[in-house]
Amino acid sequence: MSTENNLESLYENSIKILSNLIAFKTISGEDNSSLIDYCDKILKELGAESFRTYDYEKKRVNLFATIKSKKSNGKSPIILSGHTDVVPVSKSWSTDPFKATIKNDKLYGRGSCDMKGFIACTLAYAPIYSKSNLDRDIHFSFTFDEETACQGAPILIAELKKRGIKKGICIVGEPTNMKIIDGHKGCYEYTTHFEGLAGHGSAPDKGVNAVEYAVRFIDKLLKLRKILKERAPKNSVFNPPYTTLQIGGISGGIARNVIADRCRVDWELRPVVKEDGIFVNSEVDKFVSEDLLPEMKKTYPKSSIKKEIIGEIIGFDRDEKSEACELISNITGDNSREVVSFGTEAGLFQEIGISTVVCGPGSIEQAHKVDEFIKLDELKKCLNLLEGIKKQFSLD
Predict the structure, then answer these.
(1) 3-state helix, strand, coil in the chain (%, to 5)
(2) Burial of 74 (0-12, 13-18, 19+ CB in 10 A)
C-alpha cells in the first residue's frame, strides 16, 4: 500500500474513532472509565503495556500506555498527551452534541476539537507505531478533568515520577491549528467560604454578616490586582504582560432582612511567574488571619473563613532550546512559536524535566462553544505529524 493510500485509511479510521469517543459523555467530574476502557483495549490489542491512576472515588481514570521499542537504548520517549473530559453542553446545539455529525468538511460534536480529535488521531496511528522499528518508546497519556483545573494530570505525573519516567518529549495535543505553542500563564482557581452568625436585619451588631466580610475580602483582591500590574516582567511574552486576577462570582444570604451567615467568593489568578501566585496567596492569607477573622470571632467565636483550592495549574514556560519544539519544527517546517492565554497540562510535564510542546488539531476558537467542530483537514495534518515522528525515529 502506498503512503498516500495508507494515510487515507488512517484518516478514515481517525474519523471512526473520533465518532466513538464523542459518544462517551465524559463531562468533567463524571465517570470516564468507559472511554478509558475503549482506548486501553485498542492499545493493548497492539501489544501496548498500560497502567491506570484514579481519583479518590475511583470513577475518574487516567491511562498511561506504552508501545515499547525493541532497541530504545535509553533514548528519550515520545509522550502523546490528551485529556478525555469535555465541558458541559447547553440546549442550544443544532445537532446532538454526543453524536458526531459531518457537514461541509467539518465534524461536529462536544470534544471534537478539545480534544478528542487529537486522541483519535493517536489511536488511529498507533497500529503503525506498533509495527515500526522505532528507536524509542511511544507513550499515550490520557487524563481526566483537565477542564476543571487539571485535577487528573497531577495524579498521573506523581506516578510517572515514582516509575522514573522523568525525561522525554511530550506533545500536548490541545487545539492549536497544528501550530507550536511554547508558553502560557498558570491558572489558580479558588473558592473562599465565609461563615458568620445569622440574625435579624434590624440588629446588625448582634450577628456576623458573611457577605460584608466577603466584600472586604474582594476589595483586598482588587487592591492586589493593581499591584500585580506593577509587577509585570520587563520582557513578558504574554498579553496582558502581567498576572491577572478576577472575581468569578459571589453568593450568600437568604433575604434582605436577615444577616447573612454564609457567603462564598469564586476567584482566580493567572500568574506570569510562580512568585506572583505565592505573593497573592501570602497577602490574602495574612489579611484573613490578622484582620477579617479576628473581627468576626469577637462577636461569634465559631466564625470561619476557609479557602478551597479548586486547582493550581502551573504555567508553561518558554524554553528557547526546546527539544519538543525543535521536533515539531523539523517535521512541519514551521519555525514559528506562539504563547496562548488558555491553560494546559504542559507545565506539569515540563516541571518534572520533560521537554514539552502544545500542538494539536482544531482551533481553540471552537472549544467550549455551541456546535463545537473540527475541520477534517486538521485530522489529516495531525496524522502527517504522527507520520513524521515515525520517520524521524525509525531504524529502518
Answers:
(1) 35, 25, 40
(2) exposed
| Residue where a domain terminates, one of 251, 280, 313 | 313
379 and 322 fall within a common domain:
yes
- pTM, 2 dp: 0.90
Q: Among 298, 313, 328, which residue terminates a domain?
A: 313
Q: Report how far Cα 171 is from the mean position of its chain's Cα atoms.
A: 13
Same domain, 213 and 258: yes
Q: What is the pLDDT of residues 148-162, one digit of tens each?
A: 889 999 999 999 999
**To which residue does cell 526546546 refer?**
322
Strand, coil or helix: 217 = helix
Q: What is the CATH number of the domain that holds 71?
A: 3.40.630.10
Beta strands in the chain (DSSP E): 49-54, 61-67, 78-83, 101-103, 106-108, 138-143, 169-172, 181-184, 187-195, 244-252, 262-270, 304-313, 338-340, 355-358, 373-375
